[in-house]
Amino acid sequence: MIKKIAFLLFLVFMSCNIEEPTQFSEQALNDKVYDVVNKEFSFKQVLNQHKGKKILIDVWASWCRDCIVGMPKVKELQKEFPDVVYLFLSVDTKQGSWKRGIQRYNIQGEHYNLPKGMKNGVLVDFLNVRWIPRYVVVDEYGKISLFKATDASDKSVLNALQKSI
Fold first, then answer.
1. Which of 86, 90, 95, 132 could be bridged to 109 by S-S, CB 3.0 to 4.6 A?
2. Which pLDDT score, from 0 to 100, does residue 9 have?
3. Cis omega (within 30 of 0) on the bond before 133?
4. Within 13 Å, how many C-alpha atoms sit on residue 20's CB side?
5. What is the model's pLDDT at position 88?
């Protein structure tokens, strides 16, 4: 009996759609992000600024200990892959904290804020962000080549950044 139940659970698990998206939904692309001077952009506009380049997206917050601990790993990636665009999306709900975090930790790259934080944001929901830091890699064609990593030194991050077009 236990074997049958285990087998059924296995079938249910395997039949679930666990495929990760390779492109952003139109709703996610239309979600609003804000730069450090509070200028509004659609996420699509931000991505379009870097067409033809590989992008590492780092979803983080100034209050997130794991995010801060992971920053030296991101800085190592920046040295190893200088041609990659480093796009930092903060889920800080307080702009002052976000901006102080950028300065305090000397975070180099493109910076945008998702002011709704980790709740009720279309882009955050699309990415299924339940834990940060969260890393996503977008290839030179605008396709998501790595949908989910929670450690900047994860081999999947390195593999996605090393892949050439």
1. 86
2. 44
3. yes
4. 11
5. 97
Instruction: Please state at what angle helix 155-162 crosses helix 65-80, rounded to 10 degrees.
Output: 30
In single-letter form, the type of residue at position 22 comes to T
Q: Could you say which residues of the chain have pLDDT below 70?
A: 1-19, 164-165
Question: What pLDDT sits at residue 118?
Answer: 83
Q: Please name which of 154, 62, 150 lies closest in space to residue 105, comparing C-alpha atoms.
A: 62
What are the structure tokens assigned to 159, written together? Answer: 């593999």
What DSSP assignment string belongs to the chain?
A: -HHHHHHHHHHHHHHS--PPPSS--HHHHH-EEE-TT--EEEHHHHHHTTTTS-EEEEEE-TT-HHHHHHHHHHHHHHHH-TTSEEEEEE--SSHHHHHHHHHHTT--SEEEE-TTTTSS-HHHHHHT-SSSSEEEEE-TTS-EEEEEES-TT-HHHHHHHH---
Contacts of 44 (CB under 8 A, 6+ apart): 24, 29, 30
Q: Which residues contact 160 (CB under 8 A, 6 or more apart)?
A: 137, 139, 145, 146
Query: Tokens 């239309």 label which residue?
Result: 30
Cα(148)–Cα(139) distance, rounded to whole angstroms? 14
